[in-house]
Amino acid sequence: MKLVRQVLLTAILPLAAVLLAGVWLLISSVDKQEEQIQQEDELLQQIVRARVVTLLSRVDAASKILALNREAVLAVQDHNVNTLYELGRQYEPLQLSRIIYLDLQGRVLSRSDDRYRFGDDLSEQDEISQLLVDGVQAGDRVAGLFQQEDGFYYLIARPVLQYQEIPIGIVVSQVKVTPERLKQLVLGTGADIEIQIGGQRFSSFDETEGTRPETVRRVVPMGFGGRSAGLVVEEAQILLWPDRGIHSVDSLARQLLILFAVLLILLPILLMWILRRYLRPYAELVDELQQLSVGSVDLGVIRKTLGHDFRDAPEEVSRVAQAISGMAQTLERQMDELEHLAVTDQLTGLKNRRFLTASMQHAMARIYRHGGELSVLLIDLDQFKRINDRLGHSKGDEHLCSVAEAFRDNCRSSDIIARWGGEEFMLLCPDLDLKGASDLAEKLRKLVDGLRSDEVKAIDPLGSVGTLSIGAAQWLPGETAEQLLQRVDRALYRAKEGGRNRVEICAQARIAADLGGDH
């Protein structure tokens, strides 16, 4: 406990106090800063949205004025191109990019951007055709985003009204979507706006000036409420940049960094002195345990080392070493038991399916390297369920165990015998060809047929209760374990279909058919 108190008082407690104080200061500052930035962001978003609404309202108001202007009505009625041109030029300062007057057939009477361009037929353009389709009415109005020959425009098309009720022409008020127009919407806010229309993106920032979109601190989606004609704004967002309100947090972070640096210099000096004086035996103990963790020594060696080499160590180290030595001994014994249980069938004492599958892979790999042969027998106890149903499960278990014992006594020492599942067994026979495997299978079949008890035979004197149906196959180089098991399973199936108590082999002539059946 003395060592623990010294380490705790010298290193952990001061460092924890400093860390807690620093974290508290940093969290408080960050919370205040984030709250302030959030308020500024919300105000900025409201300003940008208000400017967009104001711009659209001004376009709508200018459109109404142009449609009801008495001088414009007379000029449209008389097709006075010069007067309409001058009127358009007068009203362009109302944040309009272009004003076009048309007659009721959709022919241009005047364009504010080109004095000498008139007579064009615009009746097929979307905004004009929507007005003309059912005849121009006094209350008609088309507003939205449309693509023109020279770019994208937000426009409002409405009838020019004589006596405020009789349509005599059409006026189209247009605002062109340009980076300059977007810059006006975010002027003085420190933010930018970006929209996408018709697959084309428009931004208020200029990447050629060094501004990169990937430095954006926050992206705020911007919606356009209501329904309108024309194109849809596919994407609109306000871009907030990271050059606002973070200086105080950076300053605090630098101060904490300096403080931690000082601690990192002083604390290791004190800790090194303590470690050299008190912890050398612990370091040796840790080295031993690390060797165990990486597998460079086994449990038996580490157990003997801990029990012998640390007898003269300090009491705490010696007690730990002795405890770990005892744990290693217990663990060594339990690992042996677990390893045996993991690969052994508890009823028959044979190896289990997991062990045989791994052994099959190892055998195939060995044949790949050194050559040789490998055969497999898949064995099923015929009508085993009838034994359980008629004589009870205990008698069924006895029959399983007697069959397993017969396998152990009559197979080679190199053969691997496993309970495959339920009443199925599998034999893995290294260095045995198909002929030898077939002979072994027939030997086992006859042996089990003869050792059946009278009780088992009495269940069906003329039947095959408790006998063996066996499928045999030889592994082919290049064949997977799954393919081999499928072939031997089909051979067993043929033995069952052929009347049970028989051996079926998967001969070379059948291999192509068996493999073909897998597809």
Automatic annotation (TrEMBL):
**Classification via Gene3D superfamilies:** 3.30.70.270, 6.10.340.10
Task: Give EC number(s), comma-separated.
Answer: 2.7.7.65
Q: Name one GO cellular component term.
A: plasma membrane
Instruction: Cite the Pfam families for this sequence.
Output: GGDEF
Which of UniProt's keywords are assigned here?
A: Membrane, Transmembrane, Transmembrane helix
**Which superkingdom is the protein from?**
Bacteria
What is its cofactor?
Answer: Mg(2+)
Reaction equations catalysed: 2 GTP = 3',3'-c-di-GMP + 2 diphosphate
Asked if tRNA-binding is a keyword of the record, the answer is no
The GGDEF domain covers 372-508
Q: Name one GO biological process term.
A: cell adhesion involved in single-species biofilm formation
Q: Which residues cross the membrane?
A: 256-275
Give the molecular function GO annotations. diguanylate cyclase activity
Q: Which InterPro entries match?
A: Diguanylate_Cyclase (IPR050469), GGDEF_dom (IPR000160), Nucleotide_cyclase (IPR029787), Rev_trsase/Diguanyl_cyclase (IPR043128)
Q: Which named protein is this?
A: diguanylate cyclase
Source organism per UniProt: Marinobacterium mangrovicola
Its taxonomic placement starts with: Bacteria, Pseudomonadati, Pseudomonadota, Gammaproteobacteria, Oceanospirillales
